[in-house]
């Protein structure tokens, strides 16, 4: 019989305390091993809350760890080094390079429905608009138009 436990952990800093320890303890598995696997898989998301799904087979004591991805807005704020996005429409909280936007798009790619890197970058740029983040010193909508016109094809190949 398989049991699935879902939790939100800080990237690379899961512990045997709540929420994981109390949920895993009764299953008779090696909690240290599971925590180690989670921390290894989430270390790239240090400082961010990451959704994690642990599936344990109660009979064999084997386990599988699936790591989700933080929301695009959280990844963008981490790139900028800010705590919050815009509070009012039109407020600008920071500026990113297109390279940083592409990095975030690639981090989200496994869970994205976008069919290409261009489409994934446009999704991230859409979040930039609502979060009050400019890109290359311009409104993110301008960058979306430039991508549509093929101006950044070399980078987005």
Features:
single chain, 157 residues, alpha+beta, Ribosomal protein L11, N-terminal domain, Arc Repressor Mutant, subunit A, 2 domains, 3-stranded antiparallel sheet, 7 helices, 5 strands, 41% helix, 18% strand
What's the topology here?
Layout: E1 2-10, H1 20-24, H2 31-42, E2 49-57, E3 63-67, H3 72-80, E4 94-96, H4 98-108, H5 117-131, E5 133-135, H6 140-148, H7 153-156
Parallel strand pairs: 4-5
Antiparallel strand pairs: 1-2, 2-3
Helix pairs in contact: 3-4, 4-5, 5-6
Describe the structure.
There is one protein chain. With 157 residues, this protein is an alpha+beta fold. The protein folds into 2 domains: 2-67, Ribosomal protein L11/L12, N-terminal domain (Ribosomal protein L11, N-terminal domain, 2-Layer Sandwich), CATH 3.30.1550.10; 72-156, Orthogonal Bundle (Arc Repressor Mutant, subunit A), CATH 1.10.10. The protein is built from 7 helices and 5 strands, in the order βααββαβααβαα. The strands form 2 sheets. It has a 3-stranded antiparallel beta sheet. It has a two-stranded parallel ribbon with strand order 4-5. Strand 2 (49-57) and strand 3 form a beta hairpin. The longest helix has 15 residues, at 117-131. The relative contact order is 0.12.
């Amino acid at each position: 019989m398989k049991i699935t436990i879902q939790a939100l952990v800080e990237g690379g800093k899961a512990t045997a305390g709540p929420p994981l320890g109390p949920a895993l303890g009764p299953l008779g598995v090696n909690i240290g091993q599971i925590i180690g696997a989670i921390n290894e898989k989430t270390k790239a998301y240090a400082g961010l809350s990451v959704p994690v799904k642990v599936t344990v087979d109660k009979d064999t004591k084997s386990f599988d760890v699936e790591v989700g991805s933080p929301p695009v807005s959280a990844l963008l704020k981490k790139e900028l080094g800010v705590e919050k996005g815009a509070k009012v429409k039109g407020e600008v909280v920071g500026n990113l390079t297109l390279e940083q936007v592409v990095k975030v798009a690639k981090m989200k790619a496994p869970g994205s429905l976008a069919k290409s890197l261009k489409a994934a970058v446009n999704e991230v740029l859409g979040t930039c608009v609502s979060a009050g983040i400019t890109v290359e010193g311009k409104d993110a909508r301008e960058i979306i138009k430039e991508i549509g016109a093929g101006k950044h094809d070399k980078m987005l190949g």
